[in-house]
Batch of 3 targets.
Target 1
Amino acid sequence: MLWQVVAVAACVLGAGGAQAASVQEVFEKYNQIGTWAWDCSKPPSPSNRYYVNRVIDANHVQRDEMTGPTNREHMAIIDKATVLGPNEFALSGKRDNQSAEAVWRVEQNRQIAMEVSFDGKKVVSGGKLVSNGRPLPWTNKCGAP
C-alpha cells in the first residue's frame, strides 16, 4: 500500500513534465537536515535517541541513530524521497543493509514516523509500533529557534 501511494504521488508529480525533486531537495523542503532527538536537553541514550540527518550528495542522505555520544545503533542511506503533501513525505533506502521504507509527518521543528517497514515487514503503522501498539514520540530539531 505504501508503494501504491508513492507510485501515485510520483505519477502526479511527474505529470506535466516536472522533474521529481532530489532526496536533498525533499529533505531541505521539510527542514530535515540536522540533529533530532526525543529530548534535546538530555544526552543521547537508549531512552533518548538522537538522529543525525546529513546530505551525502543530491540523491543520498545518511541518517545515524545514536544511543550514546559515540554509539551509533543504526545507519541508513536514503536514496528516494517523494513529497506526499504539505506535511508528509515518503522515503526509502537501506538501514543496516535492509530495505527500508517510511512515511514521515512533519511540523515546524518536529517530525514523526507514521509508517515504517524493514525488508517488507511493517514495524510502525499509524505512528504506533506494530509490536505493542505504543505511539512513537515526536522527534524535535535540536538547536531550532
Target 2
Amino acid sequence: MEIKNILKLIIAIIVCELAGIAGAIFTAPSISGWYAGLAKPALTPPAWVFGPVWTILFALMGISIFLVWKKHSNILENVRMLRVWRWGVAFFILQLVLNVFWSIIFFGLRNPGAAFIEIIFLWLAIVLTIIAFYRVSRPAVYLLLPYILWVSFAGYLNYSIWQSSIGMAKQVPCTMEAKLCPDGSYVGRVGPNCEFASCPAASSE
C-alpha cells in the first residue's frame, strides 16, 4: 500500500474514532448512574460490552470510508459516479454526526423518547450511505453491515427503555396513609390507583 493511502486510512479511522470519543463524553457519566437504574429488556448486554463494540464499529467505519475515499481519483472523469461518490460521503458524514447526537440526547439529555426518533434518522442515513457506497466499493458496504445491525439492535433497546420509562412515569405515588382494620391492624395504599389494601380476613372460630 502506498504511503499516501496509509495516511488516508489512518486519518479515516482517527476521525471516526474521534466521533466515538465525542459520544463517550456524554455516555460515560451516565452508564454507572442514570442508565444503570433504568428498566431494560432482557436482551440488554452488560454495560462494559458497549465500549469495545463501538470501538470496533468505528474502526470498520473508518476503513469503509477509506475504501471509498481511495476510489475518488478513479472516477473523476465519470460525472455520474462522481455524483454518487459525493452523496455517499455526504451521507456518511451525516450518519457520523447523528451517531454523536444520539449519545447526547439519550445519555446527555436523558431523553429516550427523543433519542428513539433520532436513531430512526440515524438508521436511514446509514442505509442511504450503504446504497451509495454499493456503487463505489462493495467491500466498503460489507464493513458497514455490522454497524447497521448493531444500530438496529440499539434501536430496539432504545424503544424498550423508552416504553418502560413511560410506564414508570404513569405510576402514581401513594401517600403514607393507613386504614384501621376490624382486627386492629393497619393497611396502606397499594396498586396503580393507590387504593387501600384489603384487611386481613377474620379468622373463623
Target 3
Amino acid sequence: MPRYAARTEVSPEDSRGEIERLVRKYGALGFAYGYEGNKAMLGFKTRSRSIRFIIPMPDEPEDMTVVKERRKYEQEVRRLWRSAVLIIKAKFEAVESGIVTFDQEWLYYIVTDDGSTVGDHIVPQLGKGKPMPLLPDFHSGNLIEAEAKVIHRK
C-alpha cells in the first residue's frame, strides 16, 4: 500500500508553517516547535489547554554524504511532516464539525500539571487489564441491554 505523501516535495519548514497557521486559525494563543534527536515536537495553547504533539523522525543515515541515503532520509522527513499536517487538520475539523469535543480529540496530547501528557499517564495502564470484547454482550443484563432494545426497535 502506498504511504501518504510518499512523493511530496513540500519542505518540512513549509509544513511546520502550515501547521502554525492552522493552530492560529483555530484559536491558538501560542505555538512552539523544537526537536531533539529523532523526535520533533509541536506545542500550542488553546481553549485553556496546552498541547504537546511529538512526531517521531527517522534516524539520520550514518553517512549523510551518500546521496541516495540522504535523499531517502529527507523524503521520509518531508512525508512525516505532511502526515502531521493532515492529522492536525483532521483533528481540528472534527472538533469544528461537532463530531467530537476538543478534549475528546486531543486528550492524549493535553499537557498535565506535572509536564507530561495525558497519554503518558494512560498508555502504560492499558496493558494491565484484559482485552475487552469488540462488541458488548447484549445478554448480560447490564445497561447496554437497554440500549440494544432501542436499537432493535428502529
